[in-house]
Amino acid sequence: MIELAPSILSADFARLAEQVQAASEGGASVIHVDIMDGHFVPNLTIGPPVVKSLRRATRLPLDCHLMIENPDLYIPAFAEAGADWMSVHQEADPHLNRTLHLIRGHNCLAGVVINPATPIEALSEVLDIVDYVLIMSVNPGFGGQEFIPASVDKIRRLTDLRAKRGLSFRIEVDGGIAAETVADVVRAGAEILVAGNAVFGHGDPKINARNLLKAATEATLQKV
Questions:
Q1: How far is CA 40 from CA 35, 124, 141, 155, in A?
Q2: What values do phi and psi take at 3, rounded to 5?
Q3: Active-site residue (options: 34, 37, 93, 131)
């Protein structure tokens, strides 16, 4: 099943609850929350207080993407604020196994993220304990970037590896997801689509979400 996870990074924060509701009405089933600390990535975004407010504004799962150093220090606070899913970067976490178990210990789904230059082989030792893998199809830090085409092959290789090992984690992709790219990533095996600018950048988030999800769903019928 294909799920759309609009990223609030591109939303109007003065109308955040309204925009999240509109995206939900358009078919979004997860809300993606980009947490950046200004150290691991060159941007600074939000913390647990905004997640707590967002939790009151929607019943959809909150997918907190932790683009931060020392994630173990903050996982309890995000869980308490209302996060349902949490993902951490392989590149930022030297104790990845421990961190993933910490996330699960706070009753959240645990995910691992890799940047465009990180090979999927770097995840070999944790694939059996994650609920989802997030492949970055842009370099993390800012919304509105152009999709990196090589990400499609990376998604395909991860899909093949999952089947070969008989695992059940889901595959999420984040970065440059729009009408022009969504079919390729879905056909490659992506199941959870993070889209910020394509949903919130212009026009009605409800219509944008509906159109993007429709294109993604149609692409599943074209898988080979």
A1: 11, 22, 9, 23
A2: -120, 145
A3: 34
39-61 per-residue burial string, b: 16 or more CB within 10 A, e: under 16: ebbeeebbebebbeebbeebebb
Percentage, residues of the chain above pLDDT 90? 93
Q: What is the pLDDT of residue 163?
A: 98
Q: Does residue 37 carry a catalytic annotation?
A: no
Q: Scan for tokens 């999709």, then name that residue.
A: 147
153 a catalytic residue: no
Does the CA dihedral 193-146-92-68 come out positive or negative?
Answer: negative
Q: What local confidence, expressed as pLDDT, does residue 183 receive?
A: 96
Query: Of 37, 63, 93, 174, which is the active-site residue?
Result: 174
CB neighbours of 152 closer than 8 A, spacing ≥ 6? 184, 185, 188
Contacting residues for 87 by C-beta, under 8 A, at least 6 apart:
63, 64, 65, 66, 110, 111, 112, 113, 132, 134, 172
Over 60: is that where the pLDDT of 224 sits? Answer: no
Pairing outcome for strands 109-114 and 62-67: unpaired
- pLDDT tens for residues 108-131? 999 999 999 999 999 999 999 999
Q: What global pTM score does this model have? A: 0.95
Whether the Cβ atoms of residue 37 and residue 44 lie closer than 8 Å to each other: yes
Distance from C-alpha of 19 to C-alpha of 2, rounded to nearest angstrom: 21
> Residue 173: pLDDT above 60?
yes
